[in-house]
Amino acid sequence: ILPFGWNKLTVWSHPPFFHFWINEVYLGGYQLSTFEEGYVGIGVYMNAPYSPLLVDYATLKYSDTAPYTIP
Description:
The protein is mostly beta strands. Helices cover 0% and strands 27% of the residues. It contains no helices and three strands.
């Protein structure tokens, strides 16, 4: 993670799993079977004062194939 630079977050959903990468490095997966449909978005939980969430751009792509390797 680049603490003072731009980082790229990639999330891929293959129900019931969500997989996460930062800067193309795999962080892990999470099983979440309670959401089968809904909205896509990003947010911050308990953000420190004067530490905004800055988003340069966002894209949404549909794919049956993981964007990067899942170890």
